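Case study 2.
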Amino acid sequence: MTLKHSPLDSNHRALGAKMVPFGGWDMPLNYADGTLAEHKACREAAVAFDVSHLGTVRVTGPDALDRLQAALTNDLTRIAPGRAQYTHLLDASDASVLDDIIVWWIDAERFDVMPNASNTDDVIAALGGGAVDVTAERALIALQGPEARRLLAEVFPAAADVGRFRVQELDWNGVACTVAGTGYTGEDGVEIAVAAEHASSTWDTFMAAGFKPAGLGARDTLRLEAALPLHGHELGAGITPLQAGLGWVVAWDKPSGFIGKEALLAERERGVQRRLRSLTVEGRRPPRAEQTVLVDGEPAGVVTSGNFSPALGHGIALAFLPPEVEIGDEVAIDVRGDAVPAQVVKGPFVEKK
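Prediction:
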C-alpha cells in the first residue's frame, strides 16, 4: 500500500523522527529524545503533534445541519456555530461504533467533520452527497500541555484565546487558520488547521516558540492515562457506545434520530453484556492489548489497551469486563502466563493539571 504523507513530512525527518505506517499514513512515532521524554514534556510543559492523518470532511449548505443530525448520535443543537462536539457514527445493524468523531461547527452552513485516519470514506458515505474530503488541503497541528497556551500567546495570541471546545477562523499574518480548543492528551491545548502550503513554516514557528515535537508513541500513552478511547481498540466492530461507557454522546430523543438508533435502543433495553473498565497494575511490567483478564481466576474479559504509565510509574489498562465487575474489585491480567494482580478503578488515570 502506498502511504500518504503529511505536509510536515520533511520537518519530521529534519528533526530525526522515526517514521511508521499508521492508518495509511507515514507518521512520526517519536523523535530523538524518545517517547517517555515527549510524554513528560506534554504533562509538564508543551508539545506539538502532527495529526494531519486525521480526516477533514467538509459539509456545507442549508441542509448540512440536518444531514449531520440524521447520521450522528449526538445533538448538534445542544451547541451552536463556533463550537465543537464529540459524537459517534454507528453501524445501522448492530450499533457498533464505525467511528468516533469531532465536529467543528464553523458557521451556520459549514461543518468540518474530523474522522479517524482510516474511516474517512465511511463517514463520507454515511453523510451522502455534498460531503467533501479536504484532508489533503491542510495540515493539522495539535498543541498540548499546561504551558501550551502561554507559549502560543507569544506568537499567535488570538489562537491562545480560543476556549475549550470552541472553534474560530483566524488570520495569522495573512495566513488563514481554523483553531479549535480540542485535543487527545488529557491536557489543555488547541488544534490548528492551516493550508498545506503554509504548514512547514507554521510548524517551525511553534518549534522556535518552545514547543517540543511529539509523535504517535506519546500520543498513545497520554490518551491512555486520560482513559480516552482509541478506535480499533475501545471502539470499533462489535463495540457500542453503551459498552464503551459513552452513552452521554447519544441523544436518544432528537427528532431526526440517528443511524443505528434501533439497534442501540434494543441493547439498552436488554442490558449490555460487558463494560469498559480502567485497571491499574502494580509494578513496571506493562499489560498489553489482547491479554486475558481473570475474575476469580477465570477468563472474563480482554485488555483493549495497556501500557506503562510514565506519570504514575506502573501499568495501566482498559478492558471489557462483565457488567457486574465494579470499581474497587480485584482482578488479574494474564501477562505471558503470569496472573498479575490488578484493580478496577475510576478513570481517568491522570487528571490534567
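The CA atoms of residues 42 and 98 lie 29 Å apart.
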